[in-house]
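[stage:ingest] chain + small molecule (GLP)
[stage:ingest] validated
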Amino acid sequence: MEIVILPSAAEVGLLAARKISQLVTRKPDAVLGLATGSSPLAIYAALAAHVRDGSLDTSRVSGFALDEYVGIPAEHPESYAAVIHREVTVPLRLDPARVQVPDGRAADVEQACERYEEAIRAAGGVDLQILGIGANGHVGFNEPTSSFASRTRIKTLTERTRADNARFFDTPDEVPTHCLTQGLGTISEARELLLVAQGPQKAAAVAAAVEGPVTSMCPASILQHHRRVTLVVDEAAAADL
Ligand code: GLP
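[stage:predict] done
[stage:export] C-alpha cells:
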C-alpha cells in the first residue's frame, strides 16, 4: 500500500486527479469506480479543469458508482444518481450512457443488484476505484460487519452514517434508512484502489484501516489485502498513523 500524506485537503484532490488523468491518458476507455460523499469532490473538480483546458479526453471513459440510496426518487438532488450526474458526468463531460448507478428504485432489488454486477463484468471490470472512508471505516455503504466476500446488495444504514449524511438533507428524518452498495468483494476486484481522506474526523478510521487488524468491523481494512492501493490523505486525516 502506498500512503501519500499531503499538507492540505486541496492537494489531496490534485494528486489523486493527476493519478486518474495518467490512467485515462494511458487507457482512454478506462473504467472508473466513482464515489460520492464530500471526499472525492476536489478530485472531480481538478479532473474537470483538465477536461476544460483540453489536456484530458474523457469521451470514452466509463463510470460505475459505488452506491445509491433506496427510497428517494432519482430526481432528488441528493440521490447518488443526481450527485454523480451533477459532480461527475456533466463537469467531466462523460458520456451519460457510460455512467451507471445502482438502481435504488427498482421493484426487484435483488435483480437490480445482479444486473449491476453483470454490467461491471461486461465493461471488463473497474480499472481504478475511487474511495472515500466513513468515520466508522465504511467504504461505499459497507458498514462494519459487512462480509469481505459481499457483492452488490441492499444494506441498512447505521445511525452513525445517517447522522453523518444528515448535512445533505433538510432534516435528519429525510435521510434514507437503506441503500444499495457494491460489496467489499466487488470493490476489491477493481484492479486499483485509490482512497482519499481529509480532516481530523477521518483520522481514527484511516489508522484502523491501515494499521489495525483486517476485520469486518473496519470494512476499509480490506485494503490491506489488495495488491494495488494508494491512500492519499491530508495531515489531519493522517494524524493517528
Ligand atoms: C458516504 C458514502 C461513501 C463515502 C463516505 C464518506 O456515506 N456512501 O462512499 O466515502 O460516506 O463520506 P464523506 O466523503 O462525505 O466524508
